[in-house]
């Protein structure tokens, strides 16, 4: 048993350092894993079963036409002792509305006004029904912070969550302690340290040596090692989809569609899964989604539009003379997860006859060249990230870039889904947009990684994330 | 001293160097190495220069051979100031004044064959003619045979090397040879070979020789006329044997009295 | 043996692996005696001296016997030897510029020796050092004692070295070319000082040099070395006046001196042809034979020993034809 | 001596200035910018430009340079764009790891190198001496991170004696912090020790061949005494110079070692901030390191003046 | 005065010569083997080192068809080592070569063209030496992007100042020899003297230093690639292999053994070669620094 069990402490391991904790400006997973739900809470929580529980809002009312949302704010205190006011809520929502992070801002696309009704009530008016808005209030877009402490958000975000951040040393650790002002039940473990160990093996070693109590998020590159060392036996292992990410190839949509399709046929999903997913931590898929999303579908040679077929790809290349088209594969040199797929993809595409060159660049250049590049400055790249289809929305081709799938049809389908009044409609429309996406061979999903965590056998109570990818510390107990 | 004008001469030459800076806010001082020196050599004459270490002998040779420009004073070659001379005259000066240096081992490039080394001055000074004939001739003059040409310096003894260095100096058929302590790095048994050679060259080729040494007897043996330099000035000049048997200047006396000989030692009055 | 020897060297061989720099050298310096060891560069003079001091470079080995103060120095340990070095046997080196510790004051360096061997306090040793410096005719000794080596002249440094060597009244002082690095004018002063100081202290002197006049001025006996062997050995007067070995004679003849220079410049110096052989290519028989005017087949095949003539030569120079130096 | 000090100081200032220009230009030449990194993949170009403007990254380079350097002179290292934290604070917390790591590595290196180098110099013709020389050669050939990997494999994973990586804060658990530094320091010290051994060996060999050591022996010192009283004092000079030069290399070593052992030290901070294009943080921290290295070398030079009377008294 | 300068160069004692020859021989053999490995990789590789064969992944050393086994993507380790040798050769030798060329030009200029040139060049070298090379390399990688060329550039920036210093001091000691004075006397211009006399006489130093920096270059490249700012696929380097080995399978895998061992052996070999060459080519320096 961990020596920390008796002291009411635990030490977890994080793999990445966010650098900044300003969740209004940054969308980094490394940040969203720890701050939301633990330190900062959203207005509401969406539970796994689809039900909604109160967060900073203790009650809410949705108008029949789904255009007016009225939130009743809880009589609670922020961890710094200041009471939660309606002004804070309005400030927070407005900040998120103006957030440079498009997923945050996207939730507010339909919002026309955010007003104070009385000291405990806030009213948000929409010009059309929006699923994104409602879901956003349970995600990062709905996180509530005190206006007074906004200046220190990058290093010391304040919120109403069960924990407060005592200290964050970048590249080193987060230190949390129970928030004595928390409105709910005090967490079982008072002090939590999240140690940042970028070297994955070192993290596993530390767990094995008993220096730490859990690795709630184990990146794909360690799955094989973890099995090889038998850690799944000696520790309790959880797999859960929420933290997971789809890994997908992105082809430049300006390329000839048939060339894109031929490229898609070179993607041997099982090979990726064997190589990185250890065959158990990830599923092969052709659908841009995670298994917890209703429109998800695993790989299936029948339903997949462009299943792996290297011979067919070669034939196509030969037939159309694609060998003479120089192609650039942009790979990220300093993110192993994203440079490894290139190790498989590039040689395979070359073997299929494509004239492919690999261009490895670091994240900062990648951000500028790939994310910002208009028109797209690459032909093929691989990404891994949120399984949120709305991120691709783009109506006109001139805005085409890496992160925009500019198809009016697709964007319309998403907008329709957003406006859906019932969950069933919403799901059906989402499925439709997913289908448009996968048929066009621009965003080509490869595998859907699951979230994998290892816990000290005595450390119990893990729940799957409710707010985006956040690992909730409060339910954990010895 | 003699009615014919000198081949090479320096008039009123002064040279000073600056000390390294020692104090932050004081200008670095200078010290005078040569102070209004007059010095000359006639055709066919061997002139000696002796003095204590640091007296300025080497500095004088550097100025005499045009390697260093004096602060003031003139250096005259056949009556013309070498620092005012036109290119043609300068070239002639370069050819006509050659030098033999102290350390035979370091005066030849270890990576260069003797033959190449000997031809270097001819190429550099752009002297026409049959170089091979000249090579054979000069090698004969210094008492070596042509088998030396294909070899490297490390295959020779110090005495041989010094002779090769002399041969190199002789290649352009100079009028003046300046030798700065050419025997002080040599073994006793070998130094006589080099001294005899220099002496023969002056006699047979009508060369002028400026010969520097700190050993009085060596100078006396080799030269017709000698000067004693001390404290940057020439304190006394005259026929060497005269100079050393009847020194007048105190600095000369000092030098002479320092000489040890086997005979004075054997007779017990050396120290 | 009426006079005890300050040092007696028997059949000394000094070498490294197969190479020998000294090949069977024997001589003795009587107490208060003054012997010269002369020879050209590379003849093994310094190696002989280093063997006596037990300071051979790493890898070098000495064989034979070196008797001093009743013991064979070659058999002593480094520790036992070091208690003698600087006390009963001491040495002055060639290059005063580099032979003093650059980071220590010269007075302290002398005092260290006294303190180490005489068992006196540092303060007393220091006083003695100043005293010694006065005896060495050094100007303003108190002040000079505080100087670092680079601040004083070469002659002064060599006097400091002599002071260190003489500090403990050694039985024998070995001087290895003590004046070669010095200016001609300073050389005489230093020699004079060394001469007087060794006599005052009753120390024997082994003077190593390639300079014949220095030997003539300082020594009673002389040994001439060539290629690692002594080729002639005897009283200075005899060896220099009537050299029996052709090499000794050649050396004497090739010295230009005021005496052998004709005033009209017509004189020619005698010179020894050829060069000193390198260690790894020693000629057979008498090592001097390639350069010797009197060499015969016998010289080429067998090595002569020193005989009654005092020279190791099969065909010694006839006494009837004295060297020019003696004329 | 005053001239000597003045010259060294003047050069120091010039060097700092030159290095600052160099570093500034290098970093500003880097592709990508901090705004793009902060805003991530979904940011719009306008958002990035606005953020860059907010950070003042759109001003002309000379203005930015003089702004930065002016602040440096006032002791203000600037602030991180992402967290708005003063660089000084960031650096100070990192230094509590990097300085002990660096210094202990250096001390360990010297503790290995001085005896080993001296011993092998004195016994250069014996097998032991040759063995030490060979070991130091091998040590020089081992990449420091490989040494780190192997050590953590052995002591961390196999034997479980020491943490394989990671960091415990000094104030939260002093011995824990010490324990997390043990393996990094050993890796760094071993490798540094190997290369220093070579230098010490050659310095000692060199000094022991000097005439004045022979003099010391001729006046009655044993080999050991001559080594301790004369040799080491003189060998200290070249060794000090080498150590001064090795500081820069040592810092290079810590970059890698901090990565191998996941220590949140200064070097790792630079690594992360270079990746994030936090130009001010990188510039200021790198300058800090450079000034430190230059300062060490300045001190070595001045120390030279004290240790070596030839410098002290004549210049 | 002393005739020491004319003493024939003392013959080396046999025993030591033997040991030095051994050093040289080992160094030479390792270096040649290494260069041969790099050269052969151009014509023959057991497998394409970049093509993954997932079914064959993580085979141990000695497996049929895979001499040293395979990595996490089933790529042949031995083939990767061979190509890695090529990269190491290119990066190490390239970095050292650029440094050699620039350092020689700068060093010779500093030694020969007067005080101002000397001060400028030497001080610049000092400044560059104070900038930790690893940090420069990191920043450089960010500036111009990581890759083989950047690594070579970083290495040469790193080595040039020390090269300059070494060449300068070697050239200074050649320049004060009498044969230089002699060349000046017969009117050779400075540039000619540098080319004709100084360069051949510092060539020994240059070769020795080149070898040593070659080795140092391989080490530094490994470090940079390990940090992920050096060589990237499809190029392969030993440091990158170590980086991958640690990422993919963890340190307990023998994957980290082979590239690490290769680095150690080659660097050791090159250093031994450098030391051996120094004894042969540059005896004066050998006494001082070996
Ligand atoms: N370039 C220079 N800069 C400064 N000082 C110099 C320079 N060249 C010579 N000196 C100094 O000038 C003085 C005379 O030197 P020079 O070499 O001419 O003497 P020398 O008579 O040849 O002595 P030696 O017998 O030792 O060769 C010496 O004190 C020397 O240190
Ligand atoms: N450390 C050494 N290693 C190898 N050979 C050496 C060493 N020291 C001297 N020798 C050789 O040993 C022989 C004798 O040298 P030694 O120093 O005794 O000569 P010397 O008579 O003192 O000459 P000098 O007049 O030059 O001082 C020489 O051939 C020399 O080359
Ligand atoms: Mg001179
Ligand atoms: Mg000697
Ligand atoms: Ni006249």
From TrEMBL, chain B:
CDD domains: ABC_NikE_OppD_transporters (cd03257)
InterPro entries, per database record: AAA+_ATPase, ABC_transp_ATP-bind, ABC_transporter-like_ATP-bd, ABC_transporter-like_CS, P-loop_NTPase
Record keywords, A-Z: ATP-binding, Nucleotide-binding, Transport
GO BP term, pick one: transmembrane transport
Matching Pfam families: ABC_tran
Domain ABC transporter, chain residue ranges per copy: 8-256
Keyword Transport: yes
GO molecular function term, any single one: ATP binding
Keyword Transport found: yes
Family per record: Belongs to the ABC transporter superfamily.
Protein name: Peptide/nickel transport system ATP-binding protein
Top-level taxonomy: Bacteria, Pseudomonadati, Pseudomonadota, Alphaproteobacteria, Hyphomicrobiales
From TrEMBL, chain C:
Pfam families: ABC_tran, oligo_HPY
Predominant subcellular localization, coarse grouping: membrane
GO molecular function, one term: ATP binding
CDD domains: ABC_NikE_OppD_transporters
UniProt subcellular location: Cell inner membrane
Membrane topology of this protein: Peripheral membrane protein
UniProt entry tagged with the keyword Glycoprotein: no
Annotated NCBIfam families: oligo_HPY
Residue ranges constituting the ABC transporter domain according to the UniProt record: 7-252
GO cellular component: plasma membrane
Protein name: Peptide/nickel transport system ATP-binding protein
A GO biological-process term: transmembrane transport
Transmembrane segments: none
Alphabetically ordered keywords of this record: ATP-binding, Cell membrane, Membrane, Nucleotide-binding, Transport
UniProt-listed PANTHER family: DIPEPTIDE TRANSPORT ATP-BINDING PROTEIN DPPD, OLIGOPEPTIDE TRANSPORT ATP-BINDING PROTEIN APPD
The keyword Cell membrane appears for this protein: yes
Family: Belongs to the ABC transporter superfamily.
Organism (species): Devosia enhydra
InterPro entries in the record: AAA+_ATPase, ABC_Ni/Peptide_Import, ABC_transporter-like_ATP-bd, ABC_transporter-like_CS, Oligopep_ABC_C, P-loop_NTPase
Classification via SMART domains: AAA
From TrEMBL, chain D:
Domain ABC transmembrane type-1 intervals: 95-300
Subcellular location as annotated: Cell membrane
Superkingdom to which the source organism belongs: Bacteria
Membrane topology designation: Multi-pass membrane protein
Keyword field: Cell membrane, Membrane, Transmembrane, Transmembrane helix, Transport
Family designation: Belongs to the binding-protein-dependent transport system permease family.
Name of the protein in question: Peptide/nickel transport system permease protein
Originating organism: Devosia enhydra
UniProtKB/TrEMBL annotation, chain E:
Record-stated family: Belongs to the binding-protein-dependent transport system permease family.
Membrane topology listed for this record: Multi-pass membrane protein
Membrane-crossing segments per the record: 22-45, 89-113, 134-160, 198-219, 255-274
Keywords: Cell membrane, Membrane, Transmembrane, Transmembrane helix, Transport
Top-level taxon in the UniProt lineage: Bacteria
InterPro entries on file: BP-dependent_transpt_permease (IPR050366), MetI-like (IPR000515), MetI-like_sf (IPR035906)
Main location: membrane
Name this polypeptide is given: Peptide/nickel transport system permease protein
PANTHER family named among the record's database cross-references: OLIGOPEPTIDE TRANSPORT SYSTEM PERMEASE PROTEIN APPC, PEPTIDE ABC TRANSPORTER PERMEASE PROTEIN
Sequence ranges assigned to domain ABC transmembrane type-1 in this UniProt record: 85-274
GO process terms (BP): transmembrane transport
Subcellular compartments: Cell membrane
GO cellular component, one term: plasma membrane
Coiled coil ranges: none
């Amino acid at each position: 048993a961990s020596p920390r069990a008796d002291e009411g402490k635990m030490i977890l391991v994080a793999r990445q350092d966010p650098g900044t904790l300003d969740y209004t400006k940054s969308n980094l997973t490394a940040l969203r894993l720890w701050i939301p739900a633990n330190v900062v809470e959203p207005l509401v929580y969406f539970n796994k079963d689809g039900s909604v529980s109160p967060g900073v809002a203790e009650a809410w009312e949705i108008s029949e036409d789904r255009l007016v949302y009225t939130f009743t704010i809880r009589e609670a205190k922020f961890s710094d002792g200041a009471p939660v006011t309606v002004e804070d809520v309005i400030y927070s929502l407005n900040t998120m509305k103006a957030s440079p992070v498009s997923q945050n801002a996207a939730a507010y696309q339909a919002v026309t006004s955010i007003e104070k009704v009385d000291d405990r009530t806030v009213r948000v008016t929409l010009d059309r029904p929006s699923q994104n808005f409602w879901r956003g209030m349970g995600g990062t877009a709905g996180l509530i912070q005190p206006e007074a402490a906004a200046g220190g958000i990058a290093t010391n975000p304040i919120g109403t969550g069960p924990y407060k951040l005592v200290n964050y040393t970048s590249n080193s650790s987060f230190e949390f302690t129970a928030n004595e002002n928390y409105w709910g039940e005090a967490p079982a473990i008072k002090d939590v340290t999240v140690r940042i160990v970028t070297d994955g093996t070192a993290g596993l070693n530390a767990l094995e040596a008993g220096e730490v109590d859990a690795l709630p998020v184990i990146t794909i590159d360690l799955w094989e090692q973890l099995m090889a060392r038998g850690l799944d036996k000696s520790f309790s292992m959880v797999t859960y989809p929420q933290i997971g990410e789809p890994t997908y190839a992105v082809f430049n949509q300006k390329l000839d569609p048939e060339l894109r399709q031929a490229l898609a046929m070179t993607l041997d999903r099982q090979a990726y899964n064997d190589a990185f997913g250890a065959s158990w931590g990830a599923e092969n898929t052709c659908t841009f989604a995670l298994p917890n999303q209703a429109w998800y579908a695993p790989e299936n040679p029948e339903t997949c539009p462009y299943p792996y077929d290297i011979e067919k790809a070669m034939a196509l290349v030969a037939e159309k003379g694609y060998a003479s088209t120089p192609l650039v594969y942009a790979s990220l040199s300093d993110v192993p997860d994203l440079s490894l797929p290139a190790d498989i993809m590039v040689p395979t595409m070359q073997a299929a006859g494509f004239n492919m060159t690999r261009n490895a660049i670091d994240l900062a250049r990648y951000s500028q060249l790939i994310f910002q590049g208009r028109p797209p400055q690459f032909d093929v790249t691989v990404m891994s990230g949120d399984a949120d289809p709305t991120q691709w929305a783009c109506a006109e081709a001139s805005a085409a870039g890496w992160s925009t799938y500019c198809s009016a049809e697709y964007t319309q389908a998403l907008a329709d889904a957003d406006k859906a009044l019932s969950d069933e409609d919403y799901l059906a429309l989402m499925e439709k947009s997913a289908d448009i996406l996968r048929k066009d061979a621009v965003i080509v999903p490869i595998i859907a990684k699951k979230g994998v965590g290892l816990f000290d056998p005595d450390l119990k109570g893990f729940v799957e994330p409710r707010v985006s990818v956040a690992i909730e510390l409060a339910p954990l107990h010895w | 001293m003699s009615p014919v004008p000198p081949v090479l001469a320096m008039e009123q030459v002064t040279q000073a160097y600056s000390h390294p800076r020692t104090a932050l806010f004081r200008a670095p001082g200078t010290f005078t190495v040569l102070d209004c020196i007059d010095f000359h050599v006639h055709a066919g004459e061997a002139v000696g220069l002796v003095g204590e270490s640091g007296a300025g002998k080497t500095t004088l040779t550097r100025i005499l051979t045009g390697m260093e420009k004096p602060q003031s004073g003139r250096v005259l070659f056949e009556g013309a100031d070498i620092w005012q001379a036109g290119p043609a005259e300068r070239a002639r000066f370069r050819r006509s004044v050659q030098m033999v240096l102290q350390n035979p081992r370091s005066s030849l490039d270890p990576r260069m064959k003797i033959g190449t080394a000997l031809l270097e001055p001819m190429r550099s000074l752009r002297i026409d003619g049959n170089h091979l004939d000249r090579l054979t001739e000069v090698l004969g003059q210094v008492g070596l045979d042509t088998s030396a040409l294909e070899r490297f310096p490390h295959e020779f003894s110090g005495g041989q090397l010094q002779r090769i260095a002399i041969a190199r100096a002789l290649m352009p058929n100079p009028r003046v040879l300046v030798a700065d302590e050419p025997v002080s790095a040599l073994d006793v048994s070998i130094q006589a070979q080099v001294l005899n050679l220099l002496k023969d060259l002056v006699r047979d080729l009508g060369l002028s020789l400026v010969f520097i040494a700190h050993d009085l007897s060596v100078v006396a043996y080799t030269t017709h006329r000698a000067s004693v330099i001390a404290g940057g000035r020439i304190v006394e000049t005259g026929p060497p044997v005269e100079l050393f048997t009847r020194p007048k200047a105190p600095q000369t006396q000092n030098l002479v009295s320092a000489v040890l000989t086997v005979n004075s030692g054997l007779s017990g009055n050396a120290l | 043996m009426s006079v005890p020897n300050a040092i007696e060297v028997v059949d000394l061989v000094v070498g490294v692996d197969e190479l020998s720099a000294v090949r069977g050298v024997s001589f003795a310096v009587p107490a208060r005696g003054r012997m010269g060891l002369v020879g050209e560069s590379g003849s093994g003079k310094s190696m002989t001296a280093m063997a006596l001091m037990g300071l051979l470079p790493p890898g070098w080995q000495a064989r034979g016997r070196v008797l001093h103060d009743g013991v064979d120095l070659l058999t002593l340990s480094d520790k036992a030897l070091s208690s003698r070095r600087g006390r009963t046997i001491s040495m002055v080196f060639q290059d005063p510029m580099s032979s003093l510790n650059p980071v220590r004051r010269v007075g302290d360096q002398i005092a260290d020796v006294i303190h180490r061997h005489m068992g006196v306090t540092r303060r007393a040793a220091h006083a003695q050092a100043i005293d010694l410096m006065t005896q060495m005719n050094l100007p303003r000794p108190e002040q000079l004692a505080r100087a670092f080596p680079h601040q004083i002249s070469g002659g002064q440094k060599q006097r400091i070295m002599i002071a260190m060597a003489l500090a403990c009244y050694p039985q024998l002082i070995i001087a290895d070319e003590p004046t070669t690095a010095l200016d001609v004018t300073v050389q005489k002063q230093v020699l004079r000082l060394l001469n007087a100081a060794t006599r005052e202290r009753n120390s024997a002197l082994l003077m190593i040099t390639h300079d014949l006049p220095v030997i003539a001025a300082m020594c009673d006996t002389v040994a001439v070395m060539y290629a690692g062997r002594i080729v002639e050995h005897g009283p200075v007067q005899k060896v220099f006046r009537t050299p029996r070995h052709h090499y000794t004679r050649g050396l004497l003849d090739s010295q230009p001196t005021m005496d052998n220079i004709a005033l009209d410049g017509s004189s020619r110096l005698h010179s020894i042809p050829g060069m000193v052989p390198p260690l790894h290519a020693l000629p057979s028989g008498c090592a001097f034979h390639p350069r010797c005017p009197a060499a015969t087949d016998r010289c080429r095949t067998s090595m002569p020993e020193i005989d009654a003539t005092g020279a190791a030569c099969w065909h010694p120079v006839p006494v009837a034809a004295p060297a020019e130096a003696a004329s | 001596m005053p001239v000597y000090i003045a010259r060294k100081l003047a050069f120091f200032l010039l060097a700092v200035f030159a290095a600052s220009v160099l570093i500034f230009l290098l970093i500003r030449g880097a592709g990508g910018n901090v705004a793009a990194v902060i805003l991530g993949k979904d940011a719009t170009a306008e958002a990035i430009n606005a953020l860059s403007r907010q950070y003042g990254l759109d001003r002309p380079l000379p203005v930015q340079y003089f702004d930065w350097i002016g602040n440096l002179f006032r002791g203000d290292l600037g602030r991180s764009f992402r967290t708005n934290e003063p660089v000084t604070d960031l650096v100070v917390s990192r230094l509590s790891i990097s300085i002990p790591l660096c210094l202990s590595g250096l001390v360990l290196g010297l503790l290995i190198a001085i005896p080993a180098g001296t011993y092998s110099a004195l016994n250069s013709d014996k097998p032991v001496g040759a063995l030490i020389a060979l070991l130091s050669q091998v040590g020089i050939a081992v990449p420091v991170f490989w040494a780190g990997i192997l050590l953590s494999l052995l002591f961390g994973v196999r034997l479980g004696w020491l943490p394989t990586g990671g960091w415990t804060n000094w104030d939260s658990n002093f011995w824990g912090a010490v324990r997390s530094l043990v393996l990094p320091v050993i890796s760094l010290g071993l490798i540094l020790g190997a290369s220093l051994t070579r230098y010490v060996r050659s310095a000692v060999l060199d000094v022991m061949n000097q005439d004045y050591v022979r003099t010391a022996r001729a006046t009655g010192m044993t080999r050991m005494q001559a080594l301790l009283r004369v040799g080491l004092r003189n060998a200290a000079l070249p060794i000090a110079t080498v150590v001064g030069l090795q500081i820069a290399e040592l810092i290079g070593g810590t970059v890698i070692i901090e990565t191998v052992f996941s220590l949140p030290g200064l070097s790792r901070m630079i690594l992360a901030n270079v990746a994030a294009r936090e130009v001010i943080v990188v510039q200021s921290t790198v300058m800090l390191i450079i000034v430190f290295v230059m300062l060490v070398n300045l001190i070595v030079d001045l120390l030279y003046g004290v240790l070596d009377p030839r410098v002290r008294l004549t210049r | 005065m002393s005739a020491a300068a004319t003493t024939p160069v003392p013959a080396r004692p046999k025993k030591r010569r033997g040991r030095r020859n051994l050093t040289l021989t080992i160094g030479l053999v390792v270096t040649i083997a290494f260069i041969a490995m790099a050269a052969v990789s151009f014509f023959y590789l057991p497998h394409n080192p970049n093509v993954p064969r997932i079914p064959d992944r993580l085979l141990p050393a000695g497996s049929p068809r895979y001499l040293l086994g395979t990595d996490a993507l089933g790529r042949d380790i031995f083939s990767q080592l061979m190509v890695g040798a090529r990269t190491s050769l290119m990066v190490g030798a390239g970095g050292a070569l650029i440094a050699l060329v620039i350092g020689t030009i700068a060093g010779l200029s500093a030694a020969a063209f007067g005080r101002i040139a000397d001060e400028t060049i030497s001080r610049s070298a000092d400044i560059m030496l104070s900038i930790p090379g690893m940090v420069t390399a990191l920043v450089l990688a960010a500036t111009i992007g990581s890759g083989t060329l950047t690594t070579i550039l970083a290495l040469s920036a790193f080595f040039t100042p020390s090269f300059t210093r070494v060449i300068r001091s070697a050239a200074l000691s050649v320049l004060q020899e009498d044969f230089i004075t002699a060349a000046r006397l017969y009117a050779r211009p400075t540039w000619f003297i540098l080319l004709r006399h100084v360069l051949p006489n510092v060539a020994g130093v240059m070769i020795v230093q080149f070898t040593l920096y070659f080795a140092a270059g391989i080490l530094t490249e490994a470090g940079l690639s390990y940090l992920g700012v050096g060589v990237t696929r499809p190029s392969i380097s030993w440091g990158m292999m170590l980086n991958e080995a640690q990422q993919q399978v963890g340190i307990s895998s023998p994957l980290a053994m082979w590239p690490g061992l290769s680095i150690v052996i080659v660097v050791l070999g090159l250093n031994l070669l450098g030391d051996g060459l120094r004894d042969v080519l540059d005896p004066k320096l050998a006494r001082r620094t070996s």
